[in-house]
Design a protein that fits this description.
Elements: E1 2-6, H1 11-20, E2 23-26, H2 29-41, H3 45-53, E3 56-59, H4 62-73, E4 79-80, E5 94-98, H5 105-109, E6 114-118, E7 121-125, H6 128-135, E8 139-142, H7 145-163, E9 167-170, H8 173-181, E10 187-188, H9 194-212
Parallel strand pairs: 2-3, 2-5, 3-4, 5-6, 8-9, 9-10
Antiparallel strand pairs: 1-7
Length: 213
Amino acid sequence: MVQLVENPLDVAAVAEALERCDAVVFATGRAAYRLAEEAKRVGLYEKIRSLLARMKVATVEGEKGAVMVQNAFGVRPVAVASTVEEFQLEDCRCAVVFHYGARDEELLARVRCRYLEFFPYRALPTGVEMVERALSADLVVFTSALAVQYFAEIGGPRAVEELKRRLVVAGGPGVSRALARLGVPHITAPSGRLGPLAQYVAKLAAERGGEKG
């Protein structure tokens, strides 16, 4: 339901923000890669890298995100969470937050200091064909609250009513709350991590297939 496009990134403004703060949060490793690419393009990579080296670095994309941040800047995050629900950033004076596609209010609520925000990517809704594709299945999985929002905006009330007749899985508490606001019955997966989520959905699909058989 969501496609991501590159957003203009003012690297000089990023460097200024990093100089003012003592912590940085990368919502995903791709955000770090994008910052590194842009910093190299404008000749500020070494400055950004040296600033990050003295900061408390965090990611909300688990070990994958931690490795990507380290590959991008040679700095290993000290705070690594696999989901927003697991994340907490404390003991900071000011944090620079790099979102992934859209402003994440839940993430910001877990940053226990003032923050400055940047958006290396911008999330856009996909076309109505993605809504129709989702509704063509018996089981529909949402991995982000933004995907739920875009599904409702693109598909409208008819699509939401159709969704209520499917087996819907929420990939985490934030997704569950978004579905609940639409009145969509659903199951919340035990984990929002992609690996365990995929296993959980596969098990549900197998059980559902067995019931039909």
